[in-house]
Amino acid sequence: MKRPVKTLLCLLLLAAFGPGLLFGCAGKPSATQMAAGPDWRSLSVLRQVPLQHAAQFSLTVYDQGYTLLDIPASGRFLIIPEGAGLPEGAPDDIVPLYGPLDRIYLAATSSMDFFRALDRVSAVRLSGTDANGWYIQEAKDALARGDMVFAGKYSAPDYELIFSEKCDLAIESTMIYHSPEVKEQLQKLGVPVLVERSSYEEDPLGRMEWIKVYGALLGDLDWAEALFDKEAQAVEPLLDQPKTGKTVAFFYITTTGTVNVRKSDDYVSRMIGLAGGTYAFDDLKGGSALSSVNMTMESFYDGAKDADLLIYNSTIDGELFTLEDLLQKSVFLKDFKAVRAGNVWCTGKNLFQEPMGLGKLILDMHRVLTDETAPNELTYLHKLTTGGK
Fold it and tell me: CA quadruple 150, 154, 155, 157: dihedral positive or negative?
C-alpha cells in the first residue's frame, strides 16, 4: 500500500475507533499483541540510579528489564524490554515505551550529543533540524546518507512522514509547550512524547548527567553512567580549589547594538564559578524566566570594563577570530581592560549542541583563567588575535 493511501486509511480508523489501532496500522505491535507483562506489584526494585548533580529526573531499575523514568514536569515513562509487555496493574499515568527505541523523532537539538556519545545516532530516524542547522557532524552525515530524514521542526512536524516511518518516540524540548496542539496530535497518532528538561538543570554537570536518561531509553544505562562519571571526575579536582580572583564577562552583541549577558544564576555563570572565576554580573538575578538579558552598551561598559577576561558567545551572532572583528561590533570595547590586555576569547558555534562537552568547557575556562600562556587549541574556546585567523 502506498504511503499516502495507507496513512489516510489509518487516520480514518483513528477518527472512527480511537488511537488504539494505530500501532497496528503503523506496523509496530500494540500492547495487546505483545507478550503479557508481569503483575506490576510483583516487580522488584533493583536500584535507584544515583544522581550526583541532576534534579529534573529520576530512574528506577526494576527486575525483568523494566526501567521507570520519571520527569516530574513531563511524565512517567516505563521503558519495556524488547518482546515484553506492559505490566498488568501498572499505574494509569505511566507511558509505555516499547524497546528497542530505534525510530525516534528528535526535535530537542541538544539531545543529539547524548546519542553521539553513546554511539547511537542511528536510533534517531527523524530529525526536527535540517542539515544546515546541525553542527554535530554525525547528524549531518546521517542526513546526507538518508539514514536520518528531516521531518519538520518541532512546531510544524510532517505528521504523515512521522507516522509512515513507524516513529516509536518523539523527544521534544520545552519549546513544544508553545505549540501544545503538536504534542496532542503526535499522541493521537500513537507516538509517545517525552519533553526533556536538561536545560532546566541549574548545575551544568546536571545537564551532562542527562546522558543517563538516554542510556536508559537506549538500553545502555551502565555505559551512560560510566561516560558521565568519566567527564565529571575530570572536573572534580577544580571544585575544591580557591578562586582565582579574576572576573569574567560572557556576552554577545545583538543586531540592535544591545549586549546580551547571562544572569548570575544561569548555568554558564555557574561554570565560570566552577572554573575559579567570578562572573562580572554576579548580582544580575530575578525578573523573567529567561536565562539572559539585554542591556545597553553603557550598562555593559559599567559592569565589565574592568573584567579580566571576556568570552564572546558565538552561538547567535557567529564566531569572531580577531580583536578587530570584536571592535567592529562596538568601538566602546577598545577601552575594556581585557581588550587592552588581549585576553578575549570566543566560543565555538557547536557549544550549545554539545552538553556532554560542558565539563571540557569548564576546564577550558579554568585554563585561560590560570595560565597566561594558555594555547589556542582548547576544546571550546579560541583566543581573538590582533589580525588574521
Answer: positive
Q: Residue 257, class by beta-carbon neighbours within 10 Å (0-12 exposed, 13-18 middle, 19+ buried)?
A: exposed
Which three cell numbers mark 266?
544561569
What's the CATH code, domain 29-231?
3.40.50.1980
Check residue 385 and report its DSSP letter. Answer: B
Q: Are 368 and 362 in contact (CB under 8 A)?
A: no
Tell me which amino acid residue 320 is. L
Domain boundaries, the chain: 29-231, 241-383
- The pTM assigned to this predicted structure is 0.89
pLDDT in tens, 3-54: 554 455 455 545 444 444 444 444 355 544 467 899 999 999 999 999 999 9
Beta strands at 278-279 and 247-253: parallel, antiparallel or unpaired: parallel
265-297 burial string, b = 16+ CB within 10 Å, else e?
ebbbbbbbbbbbbbbbbeebeeeeeeebbebeb
A 10 A CB-CB count for 233 gives 10
